[in-house]
Amino acid sequence: MGKINTLLLDCDNTLVLSEDLAFEGCADLINEIAASKNVALEKPFTGESLIVEFVGQNFRGMMVSLQQRYGFSMTDDELNDYVRREEDVVIAKLKAKLVSVPNVDGVLEKLAASGQYKLAVVSSSALRRVQASVDKVGQAKYFGKDIFSAATSLPKPTSKPDPAIYLHAMEKLGKKAEECVAVEDSKSGTLSGTRAGLKVIGYVGPYKEAEREKMVKVLTEAGAVIVIDDWSKFEEALAKIDRGEI
């Protein structure tokens, strides 16, 4: 047995198929904000157009980018109010329609049963949303209280690619980077894990076939040591890292 004893898993589109649902809710709200700030959008945002630009970022991170791009500003109170509203909109969608990503549940069950690994969730999304997600699909039993959110768990809210949330999770769990492996589906998430000194397994399962090849390259360039397209390949990838091959 190698030295890996902790798995730090991203949530959105890594454990659960939440990105499409979340971005759909998010787009409606951003279009409303743009109208209220008299921002002339070339065309309204859709869930799909937001995903292309902002996958892996949380709503607060998106709003910071959009304010810079379109030259409008929000007070902290306004921003916090919209962040809360976005959370409510998205959680309602997730509770209605969320499912696990293919093949992850069997892998989690096996990992948990082996007793070899501490399993934790490390996400940019708000804690309430992550908790609602893992509750809905029946994964909460694998993580207990070990769910960490860049939007909620830190003294100062942030978003991946900032490594702060991974550093925070390791500190809380009492683990060193070399004992952990992270799993991420986005560039910002992969950068976050890599910058925290972690070996990251990239996961491209939920991307459309046409985008997968590109995303393999994106995640590899962001620092992923290996990229898988299905959770059925996870144990083999983990074993390679554990043996020091990658």
What does this structure look like?
This is HAD-like domain-containing protein. InterPro entries: CbbY-like, HAD-like_sf, HAD-SF_hydro_IA, HAD_sf, PGP-like_dom2. There is one protein chain. This protein has 246 residues and is α/β, with parallel strands linked by helices. It has 2 domains: 6-18 and 99-242, HAD superfamily/HAD-like (Rossmann fold, 3-Layer(aba) Sandwich), CATH 3.40.50; 19-97, DNA polymerase, domain 1. Helix content is 51%, strand content 11%. It has 11 helices and 6 strands. It has helices at residues 19-36, 47-54, 59-70, 76-97, 104-114, 127-136, 140-143, 164-173, 187-195, 209-221, 234-242; strands at 6-9, 118-123, 147-149, 180-184, 199-203, 226-228. Strands 3-2-1-4-5-6 form a 6-stranded parallel β-sheet, sandwiched between helices. α1 packs antiparallel against α4 and α4 packs parallel to α6. The protein is globular and about 55 Å long. The model has no long low-confidence stretch (mean pLDDT 96).
Distance between the termini: 16 Å
- The residue-averaged pLDDT reads 96
- Characterize the main sheet: 6 strands, parallel
* Share in β-strands: 5-15%
Q: How much helicity do the residues have?
A: 40-55%
Radius of gyration: 18 Å
Structural features:
phosphatase activity; HAD-like domain-containing protein; HAD_sf; globular; DNA polymerase, domain 1; 246 residues; alpha/beta; HAD-like_sf; Rossmann fold
